[in-house]
Design goal:
Elements lengths: L1 E4 L14 H9 L3 E5 L10 H6 L3 E3 L2 H7 L2 E3 L6 H4 L7 E4 L7 H10 L2 E4 L14 H18 L21 E5 L3 H12 L3 E6 L2 H11 L3 E5 L2 H9 L3 E4 L14 H4 L7 E4 L20 E4 L2 E4 L9 H22 L1 H7 L1 H4 L2 E4 L2 E2 L2 H7 L4
Parallel strand pairs: 1-2, 1-4, 2-3, 4-5, 5-6, 7-8, 7-10, 8-9, 10-11, 11-13
Antiparallel strand pairs: 6-14, 12-13, 14-15
Helix pairs in contact: 6-7, 11-12
This protein binds nicotinamide-adenine-dinucleotide.
The site of nicotinamide-adenine-dinucleotide has 32 residues, from helix 6, helix 7 and strand 8.
């Protein structure tokens, strides 16, 4: 199959949908890989690395889209890409169509077969193509929290791990899922005192066993959140209620009673955020003050570490891309019902009930 990898054109998106190693893998399976020139540069992969892996490069996106039977991307197509999509072509990428009527209409109009990373399911029902980005965001959550606790960034001037004779920082993680447990890994590694709150006691049991007593686990309710947050130097919000907006767990009245210079990192901002005054920020201006505290609410945290994020994403997308290329999308979906759940649209027909409901369309 002819596989195309265009350069990502969305603002501040430096990831690429295929690494040179992944390109080599597809070439070994007998496929042709065409990469837009410069597509991997933002992730640390020069064109030469793709050429060495047996791929070809093309100077312009039109050529890549024009030749490809399967297009691999990271983000949903934006307006300048709409006219390049066509029927008979397969697009495999993050789509988030429920959030964009324009993109949904463009995909349906084009007739392209659109398979969305975010709705592909593993046999246990989990979302295997979303998990790596939560892992990255979770680990970054503690890292950026530690950075913003430093006085020059507006924080309280507390070192996360302390030093002998000086207490370490108290880190509170709200939500002990994929992002939250990864935040805890880094905070514990930096020497902080860490508490994880979750409503799912089975999850807390797993964390208790995994951390061997290095984190305190607390059943989450309003009273426990209040107690933990008031004692915290750094709060990391990582809750998720699938398909819903994040619950608001930290009201402004509580933030007003926190230690001056405390830092609150809202990883759940892409679902509306779990602190009352959270609003999305960017890597260019990531923080804003609320009372005497600092909020960090970057909605695409993995974008700060494109090399790691690209490799983490392509590690999990490659087996699916290879199956689509080897078998064709229909047989690949028949062989793997979890991949079939990623099918959002084909030949102008919408297959996602969630996207249909979001836009008042018929699935
Ligand atoms: P997850 O499902 O693995 O974990 C969420 C956890 O929150 C679960 O353990 C759940 O029991 C817990 N929870 C739900 N309601 C709670 C409550 N009221 N109190 C305490 N805990 C509660 O989800 P995840 O993959 O870790 O994702 C977490 C969030 O991070 C999501 O909103 C996701 O979209 C977001 N995310 C953001 C970025 C970013 O760049 N900002 C990147 C990746 C993921």
């Amino acid at each position: 199959m002819r596989i195309g990898v265009p350069r990502e054109v969305k603002e501040q998106e430096y990831r690429v949908a295929l690494t040179p190693a992944g390109a080599g893998e597809l070439v070994r399976h007998g496929h042709e890989v065409l990469v837009e020139a410069g597509a991997g540069v933002g992730s640390g992969f020069p064109d030469d690395a793709y050429l060495a892996a047996g791929a070809r490069t093309a100077p312009h996106a039109d050529e890549v889209w024009g030749a490809a039977e399967l297009v691999l991307k990271v983000k949903e197509p934006i307006a300048e890409e709409y006219s390049r999509m066509r029927e008979g072509q397969v697009l495999f990428t993050f789509l988030h169509l429920a959030a964009s009527r324009d993109c949904t209409d463009a995909i349906l109009r084009s007739g392209i077969t659109a398979i969305a990373y975010e709705t592909v399911r593993a046999p246990d029902g989990s979302l295997p193509l979303l998990a790596p980005m939560s892992e990255v965001a979770g680990k970054l959550g503690s890292q950026v929290g530690a950075y913003h606790l430093m006085s020059p960034q507006g924080g309280s001037g507390v070192l996360l791990g302390g030093v002998p004779g000086v207490r370490p920082a108290d880190v509170v993680v709200l939500g002990g899922g994929v992002a939250g447990s990864n935040a805890a890994v880094v905070a514990v590694g930096m020497g902080a005192r860490v508490a994880v709150l979750d409503t799912n006691i089975a999850r807390l049991r797993e964390l208790d066993a995994r951390f061997g007593g290095r984190v305190i686990t607390i059943g989450s309710n309003a009273a426990e959140v209040e107690k933990a947050v008031l004692a915290a130097d750094l709060v990391i919000g990582a809750v998720l209620v699938p398909g819903a907006r994040a619950p608001k767990l930290v009201p402004d009245t509580l933030v007003a009673r926190m230690r001056p210079g405390s830092v609150l990192v809202d990883i759940a901002i892409d679902q509306g955020g779990c602190f009352q005054s959270s609003h999305p920020t960017t890597h260019t201006k990531p923080t804003f003050p609320v009372a005497d505290s600092l909020f960090y609410c970057v909605a695409n945290m993995p974008g700060a570490v494109p090399h790691t994020s690209t490799v983490a994403l392509t590690n999990v997308t490659l087996p699916y891309a290879r199956a689509i290329a080897d078998l064709g999308w229909r047989s690949a979906c028949t062989a793997d019902p979890g991949l079939a759940q990623g099918l959002n649209a084909d030949a102008g027909q919408l297959y996602s009930p969630e996207v249909a409901a979001a836009h008042g369309l018929r699935p």
